[in-house]
Amino acid sequence: MHSMKLELRINSRAYELDVDVRKSLMDLLRELGYTGVKHGCGVGECGACTVLVDDIAVDSCLYLAVWARGKNIRTVEGECRDGKLSAVQEAYVEEGAVQCGFCTPGLIMTSTAFLEKNGDAELSREDIKRGHAGNLCRCTGYQTIINAVETASKK
Ligand code: FES
Ligand code: FES
Asked: Do the domain assignments include residue 61?
């Protein structure tokens, strides 16, 4: 096994780990207990594994853990602070944008990055759809998800 020392932060908590250079960031996060990071397709198609790397949304199944050296990773677990849901999480609940929930953590991270980047702009439903094109949901038909992002953008 080829392993490397890896220092990174996950939801602002510092870690120093020995990591197999072939391991994906998705597998590393899940092994550390961040199981909100979902293993869907494993090949960059579904977005269920989306996390933020220095505030940019990435498919963690396609991102090697060692590339995260020195970076801050945000997962859905870190978005709830002091028992309080983030504005995006709250909006998903309010709009009923969750059915089976498998896609939800990845979508919430995509919505979070999208709104942190574009939240000050006037957003159309088309803009929101384009911004979430990398995340698949088998259950909701997407309308409630778009409603949730619209609601969150007004918070
Ligand atoms: S599990 Fe990563 S994109 Fe589907
Ligand atoms: S709620 Fe089931 S896949 Fe989206």
From this structure: yes
Domain count, the chain: 2
Domain of 92 in residue numbering reads as 87-154
Q: Check residue 73 and give its pLDDT.
A: 98
Q: Which ligand lies nearest the alpha carbon of 46?
A: 1
CA distance 38 to 48: 5
Do 65 and 106 lie in a common domain?
Answer: no
For residue 121, the model assigns a pLDDT of 87
One-letter amino acid of 91: A
Mutation choice for ligand 2 from 100, 107, 144, CB with most ligand atoms inside 8 A: 100
Amino acid 120: pLDDT: 84
Ligand 1 surroundings by CB, under 6 angstroms: 39-42, 44-49, 59, 61
pLDDT given at position 155: 83
Which ligand is in closest contact with the Cα of 41?
1
Q: Which residues make Cβ contacts (< 8 Å) with residue 93, sequence separation at least 6?
A: 85
Q: Give residue ranges with CB within 6 A of ligand 2.
A: 98-103, 137-140
40 φ, ψ (degrees, to nearest 5): -95, -100
The residue ranges of the chain whose pLDDT is under 50 are none
**Tokens 């909701």 identify what position?**
140
